[in-house]
Specification:
Elements (H helix, E strand, L loop, with lengths): L27 H9 L27 H7 L1 E7 L4 E4 L1 H7 L10 H6 L6 H14 L2 E9 L5 E12 L5 E10 L1 H33 L3 H9 L10 E8 L2 E8 L3 H5 L4 E2 L5 H8 L3 E3 L2 H7 L4 H5 L5 E9 L2 E10 L7 H38 L10 E8 L10 E7 L5 E8 L4 H19 L4 H15 L5 E9 L4 E7 L5 E3 L5 E3 L4 E2 L13 E4 L5 E5 L11 H12 L13 H11 L11 E8 L10 E6 L5 H16 L6 H17 L5 E9 L6 E9 L19 H8 L2 E6 L4 E9 L6
Parallel strand pairs: 16-19
Antiparallel strand pairs: 1-2, 1-5, 3-4, 4-5, 6-7, 6-11, 7-8, 9-10, 10-11, 12-22, 13-14, 14-15, 15-16, 16-20, 17-18, 17-21, 21-22, 23-24, 24-25, 25-27, 26-27
C-alpha cells in the first residue's frame, strides 16, 4: 500500500526535552526494548482507536467541533502499559468493536491488511525510538471482508526522564482519497503502457520493409486498454480500396470491399476526404450518421468503429479500421492513441510502397539485362544464379551469359561492371550484348575479349569492367579461357576434389583498348564442373579473397546426390549450395553472379564426333590451336593413327584459305563409321567465301610454295572442291581400320 514520509503533525505539542530534567535521553535501542516490553511477538503499534475513551485526558472542548466537522478521531496509546484508546469517531472510522479489539497493539495490528501491518510496525518503532512523529495510510479488513482505508498521524511523548511514554494523534477515513489515488495509479500505469506500446509499434513499423510486412505488423498489434475485435489495413488507388491485411474478419467479408470503389457516404471515405479520424460509438450512431452504407454493416457483429486516415506527405494513401464487438465511447486518450497509431502506419506504409516500387523496378531491369533463359546445349549442363545485394536498389553490374557457338560449342561469360547503381546496370546490358555478339560470330576468345574492351572504351562511360570468357569445346571437353582482371575459374574434378584453375590475366575491359589477352587452355573429363563467379561470393569486408576461395572450394567438394536419385539435376543442387554460402540478403554487400557448367562427355554418334571452329583472317595463331584440337579429338575418337596425316593436310587447307582470301575460314572435322565393317572415315572441310578456286601446280625444286594440293592428293584417300552459295568448300577424307583402345 502507498505510504508517505513521516509528517510533522500540526497542533501536536512538542516532545519534552531531557535537558530540563538534568537527565540524558536513554539510547534508542533501550527505548525500543522498553516500548516492546520484552514480550515476544509484541509490536510497538501505531494508532487507531478501538474502544471508548477511558483515560482522564480528553479532547479539548475548543478542538472537538473542528474534529467532528471533519470526521477526525483521536487516539492515545500508553506505550508502557500497551493500552490503546480512542474516541467514538476513531472506532467508527476503523470499524472496531469490543469483540475484535482488546486495546493492545498486537490486537490492533491484526486488524490491518497483511501487506500494511509490517509498514505500520516499522514506522511506529522508529518514532518510539527517536521520540518523533509518524504517519501512513493503511487498510483494515472488516468482519464481513470489507476493505477500508485509514490515514493517521501521531507523535510520541516522553516522560520526565526522557523515555517514550505515550503516542497521541489523529485518524480519519481515507477510503475515497485512496480510491482516487488507486485510479490515478491505474491511469498512470495505462498511460505508461500506451507510451511503451507507441514506442514498440514505431520500432516494429520502422523495421517493416515491404507492404506485406507493414500489414502483418499492424494486424498483430495489441492495443493496451482497448483490445480491438477487428483490424483492417487498406490502401487507396484511384478511388478504389485495396485490402492489404485484416484480422478478426472473414475473407468473404473483405472480398466485398477489396478492389472496389469506396462510396462517398462511407465513413472511410469521409475520413480520407477530411483527413481526420471518424469514431462511431454504437450501431445506432452508425445508422443515423451513415444511412447509405448501413445495409452491408447491419449484418456484422461489430458495434463500434474507428476509421483512421493514412496521410503521408499531405496526401491520403489509405485507411485503417479498428472495430469492437460492443459499444465503445472512446475517451480523449484513446482517440489520441489511435490517431498516433494511424500516423505511424501511414509513414511506414508510404515508405514500404516506395520500397516495393523500387524493388520491382530493380528486379524488372535486372531481368531485362540478364538472360531470361540459359540455352540447352547437348553435351553440357549449366546452372546459373543471381543474388542481389541487400541494400540500395538491389541492382548492379554483375552478369552472366551462356552463348551457343558455331560447331555446337558453348561460350561462358561472367563479368562485373564497376559500380552498383542503375548506370552500372545500363553499361552491363550494353557490354553483355556486345560480347555475346562477338562470341556468336565465332571469334576466338582473345579476339572476343579485345573487341569487348575496345567497345567499352568507346562508350566513354568512365567505367571499367572485369570479365572472364571461356570457350568450351563440347566434343572433347577442352576449355579456352581468357581473363580480364576477373577471378580465376574453379574446377570440380570427377573425384570430388576442387582446385582454382590459374588463367593468364589481362587488364579490365575499357582501360587499355589495345590490350591483347592471352588464352589459357585446360581440359575437363566427363562429369567435371567448372565454376565462374563474381567477387561478391568470395570477398567482403569481413572475409579476404583467400578465405573466400578456400570456403568455396570446401563447399564445391562436398558430396553430391547421384544422377537419377532426385527430380533435380545435381548441378542445380550444387548451385543452390554454393549460393547459400553467401551472406544473408540483408547483410550482403555486393550482388553475386554465379555460373556452373558440367561437361557430360561425348555420347557417341556424329554429333559427338565433330570438331567445328572459325578461324579469323588476321588470327594466324588460331591455326596452331585448331591443329592441337584436331589431335586431341582424333585420339579421343580412337583413330590416333590418322593424327599426323590429318594435321598436315588440315593445316594446308586452312593456310590456303587464309592466304588466298580476305575473309574468315570455317574448319570442320567429322568422323563417320560404317556399321557393317566398323571402319572409320575422317572428313575434314574448310569453307571460305572466295570464288577463286585452287589450282594444282607442279613447282620446281627450289619453289617455296605450291605443293599443298600435291600433298592433299598424295596422302588423302579422297579430296575435292565444292561450290557453295557464296564461296567454296575444300575437303579431304582419310580412312582407318577401326577404333583403337584409349
Amino acid at each position: 500500500m502507498a505510504t508517505e514520509p513521516e509528517p510533522q503533525g500540526p497542533g501536536l505539542p512538542p516532545a519534552p526535552s531531557a535537558a530540563g530534567s538534568g537527565r540524558g535521553r536513554p539510547p534508542a535501542q533501550a527505548v525500543r526494548r522498553h516500548a516492546l516490553r520484552g514480550a515476544p511477538g509484541r509490536l510497538a503499534p501505531m494508532v487507531s482507536a478501538g474502544l471508548p475513551t477511558t483515560s482522564g485526558d480528553s479532547t479539548p472542548d475548543w478542538l472537538e467541533p473542528a474534529m467532528a466537522a471533519n470526521g477526525i478521531g483521536s487516539f492515545d496509546w500508553d506505550i508502557r502499559r500497551d493500552v490503546l484508546e480512542g474516541d467514538h469517531r476513531a472506532c467508527a472510522i476503523i470499524g472496531l468493536d469490543k469483540g475484535r479489539f482488546d486495546s493492545s497493539s498486537t490486537s490492533f495490528l491484526s486488524l490491518l491488511h497483511p501487506e500494511d501491518a509490517p509498514v505500520v510496525r516499522r514506522r511506529v518503532e522508529r518514532a518510539v525510538a527517536e521520540l518523533g512523529q509518524c504517519g501512513a495510510y493503511y487498510r483494515t479488513v472488516g468482519p464481513n471482508g470489507s476493505m477500508r482505508a485509514v490515514r493517521f498521524r501521531g507523535r510520541v511523548l516522553a516522560d520526565a526522564f526522557g523515555r517514550a511514554s505515550r503516542m497521541v494523534g489523529f485518524v480519519w477515513d481515507a477510503t475515497v482519497e485512496l480510491h482516487k489515488r488507486d485510479r490515478a495509479d491505474r491511469m498512470a500505469l495505462l498511460r505508461e503502457e500506451r507510451s511503451r506500446f507507441i514506442k514498440e509499434a514505431a520500432r516494429a513499423l520502422s523495421e517493416a520493409v515491404t507492404v506485406r510486412d507493414v500489414a502483418r505488423v499492424f494486424t498483430e498489434l495489441p492495443l493496451p486498454g482497448l483490445p480491438p475485435d477487428g483490424l483492417v489495413l487498406a490502401a487507396q488507388e484511384a478511388g478504389r480500396l485495396q485490402i492489404l491485411g485484416a484480422s478478426g474478419y472473414r475473407p468473404d467479408e473483405m472480398a466485398v470491399y477489396d478492389r472496389s470503389l469506396l462510396p462517398a457516404g462511407h465513413p472511410a471515405a469521409e475520413a480520407i476526404r477530411l483527413r481526420a479520424p471518424v469514431f462511431i460509438a454504437s450501431r445506432e450512431e452508425y445508422r443515423e450518421r451513415y444511412p447509405e452504407t448501413w445495409g452491408p454493416v447491419s449484418d456484422s457483429s461489430r458495434s463500434a468503429w474507428a476509421f483512421l486516415p493514412l496521410v503521408a506527405s499531405g496526401r491520403p494513401i489509405g485507411v485503417c479500421l479498428v472495430s469492437f464487438d460492443d459499444d465503445r465511447e472512446l475517451d480523449a486518450d484513446e482517440r489520441t492513441l489511435l490517431s498516433t497509431l494511424g500516423g505511424l502506419v501511414a509513414q511506414s506504409l508510404a515508405r514500404a510502397r516506395l520500397h516495393d516500387a523500387e524493388h520491382e523496378l530493380a528486379a524488372g531491369l535486372q531481368r531485362v539485362m540478364l538472360p531470361r533463359t540459359v540455352p540447352s546445349i547437348p553435351g553440357v549442363s549449366t546452372a546459373v544464379r543471381y543474388l542481389a545485394a541487400g541494400s540500395g536498389l538491389q541492382i548492379g553490374g554483375d552478369w552472366y551469359d551462356v552463348v551457343p557457338l558455331p560447331g555446337g560449342h558453348v561460350g561462358l561469360v561472367i563479368g562485373d561492371v564497376q559500380g552498383h547503381d542503375v548506370h552500372a546496370a545500363g553499361i552491363m546490358g550494353q557490354l553483355r550484348i556486345a560480347l555475346r555478339a562477338y562470341a556468336a560470330e565465332g571469334h576466338p576468345p582473345a579476339a572476343v575479349m579485345a573487341r569487348a574492351s575496345r567497345f567499352l572504351a568507346d562508350l566513354d562511360t568512365d567505367h571499367f569492367a572485369t570479365c572472364t570468357y571461356a570457350e568450351v569445346n563440347v566434343d572433347y571437353g577442352v576449355v579456352y579461357a581468357v581473363r580480364a582482371g576477373h577471378l580465376d575459374p574453379v574446377v570440380r574434378r570427377a573425384d570430388g576434389s576442387t582446385t582454382v584453375q590459374p588463367v593468364a590475366g589481362g587488364l579490365p575491359l575499357g582501360i587499355a583498348p589495345d590490350e591483347e589477352y592471352r588464352v589459357t587452355r585446360f581440359s575437363l573429363d566427363p562429369g567435371e564442373t567448372v565454376l565462374l563467379c563474381t567477387d561478391g561470393l568470395v570477398e567482403s569486408r569481413t572475409m579476404d579473397l583467400d578465405t573466400g576461395f578456400s570456403r568455396l572450394c570446401h563447399v564445391l567438394s562436398g558430396e553430391l546426390p547421384a544422377r537419377g536419385e532426385s527430380a533435380r539435376d545435381p548441378l542445380e543442387d550444387l548451385a543452390d549450395r554454393v549460393a547459400s554460402q553467401s551472406a544473408d540478403s540483408s547483410e550482403r554487400e555486393d550482388d553475386i553472379a554465379l555460373l556452373l557448367l558440367r561437361w557430360d562427355g561425348p555420347e557417341g554418334g556424329l554429333a559427338a564426333q565433330q570438331l567445328r571452329r572459325r578461324i579469323g583472317q588476321a588470327d594466324l595463331a588460331r591455326i596452331a590451336e585448331v591443329r592441337a584440337e584436331l589431335r586431341d579429338a582424333l585420339r579421343r575418337w580412337g583413330v590416333a593413327d590418322l593424327v599426323d596425316t590429318a594435321e598436315l593436310l588440315a593445316s594446308e587447307l586452312v593456310t590456303n584459305a587464309i592466304r588466298h582470301t580476305d575473309r574468315d575460314a570455317m574448319f570442320t572435322a567429322r568422323l563417320y563409321r560404317e556399321p557393317a565393317t566398323d571402319r572409320a572415315r575422317l572428313r575434314v572441310e574448310v569453307e571460305d567465301e572466295s570464288d577463286l578456286w585452287p589450282t594444282r601446280r607442279t613447282p620446281g625444286e627450289q619453289a617455296s610454295s605450291g605443293r599443298g594440293l600435291m600433298l592433299v592428293e598424295a596422302l588423302s584417300d579422297a579430296w575435292g572442291v565444292e561450290p557453295r552459295g557464296t564461296g567454296k568448300r575444300m575437303w579431304f577424307e582419310l580412312c582407318a581400320a577401326g577404333p583403337e583402345a584409349d
